[in-house]
Amino acid sequence: MTGAGIVPSMMRSNHEFETPLSPTEVVRRIESLTAPPGNAFTRRLGMNMDYPLRGYVTPGGFRITRNTKGLNSWRPVAEGAVLGRPSGSLVTVNFRLDERVRIVQISFLAVWASLMTLVSATAIVSGRLSALMPVVVLVLIAGQAIAAYRAGRLSGGKQRAEILDILCQRLDLHRVETQG
User: Fold this and answer.
1) 16 touches 92 (CB < 8 A)
2) Burial of 86 (C-beta count, 10 Å sphere; 0-12/13-18/19+)
3) Strand (E) positions, the chain?
4) What is the pTM of this model?
5) What is the pLDDT of residues 121-158, one digit of tens each?
């Protein structure tokens, strides 16, 4: 299966695949595709760019992301497990954003809601509609933040498809059909 068969279901975060390879071979192949996580310095300089993925691989699973030059907080993280089966292995992949991105999103929303409440209360108490001008500015800023979030989500969908495509090609993965 290639990425073309995966793309229609990209909105799902959880994926299960079967492969005839042993768990040890699956882990070995993922390791061969994965550069060490590195740090901001090595990512900005584009070191280890000859690997398609970046992250950690352990005997029972992995935590990887697409290997791109520079820093990208919106890059999805794929966490997976490799489980043995009589006929090979079961590979589960779950996508999510980095925890730091969620913390920034929650913090932004808290500050934005507090400012909206403060400015609106000031306008009501003072009785001047001109005091609502900061509310308009805050709404415009929120609109820009939402647009940036959506752009990040869209590029994240593309990167999820790329990660799954790499894994499917190199590990001979076949989607597990779920009942229900």
Assistant:
1) yes
2) exposed
3) 14-19, 34-35, 53-58, 61-66, 77-85, 88-96, 174-175
4) 0.64
5) 777 777 776 666 776 777 777 777 676 666 655 556 77
